[in-house]
Design goal:
elongated; 1 helix; alpha+beta; binds zinc ion
């Protein structure tokens, strides 16, 4: 995937499993330091990730 901010293909991808078992993928751009997550083929924002984590802990 290319960075949505600066279009460089130089991004890190890390698969992560949330505490409730949902699979998300974390991306980080080397060039502009943009960070984002996807779940399946759709983008999710950090607040949604935190919400999922918080719901699981509650
Ligand atoms: Zn970038």
């Amino acid at each position: 995937m290319d960075c949505p901010q600066c279009s460089t293909p130089d991004v890190i991808e890390i698969d992560q499993t949330l505490p409730d078992g949902q699979q998300v993928r974390f991306f980080s751009c080397h060039h502009c330091e943009e960070k984002w997550w996807t779940q399946g083929d759709k983008e999710v924002d950090l607040s949604q990730i935190l919400e999922m984590v918080r719901e699981h802990k509650a």
